[in-house]
Design a protein that fits this description.
The protein is built from 4 helices and 3 strands, in the order ββαααβα. A hairpin with a 4-residue loop joins strand 1 and strand 2. It is 44% helix and 28% strand. The radius of gyration is 15 Å and the shape is elongated. The chain has one domain.
Length: 75
């Protein structure tokens, strides 16, 4: 599930997404996938899952006006 926010004062766009770790981790950039924070987060998610707990991952990405317009024209 995602939402696109438009900050009027700076005219910037921000995509906020949430989802299961199995869906969100593959969508990370290679740089993010290789980070220590991502590795630690995966470990925490695996630990929680082994206890029968569900987890949600939150992510954000800045978008350009062109990307937002393209998305809006498709959906």
């Amino acid at each position: 599930m995602s939402v696109i926010l438009h900050h009027l004062e700076s005219n910037t766009y921000l995509l906020l997404s949430k989802g299961a770790d199995s869906v969100m981790f593959p969508r990370l950039t290679q740089q993010s996938r290789d980070s220590d924070i991502t590795a630690a987060t995966k470990t925490f998610c695996d630990d929680f899952a082994s206890e029968g707990l569900r987890t949600l991952i939150l992510a954000e990405r800045q978008m350009t006006k062109k990307e937002v317009d393209q998305y809006l024209s498709e959906y």
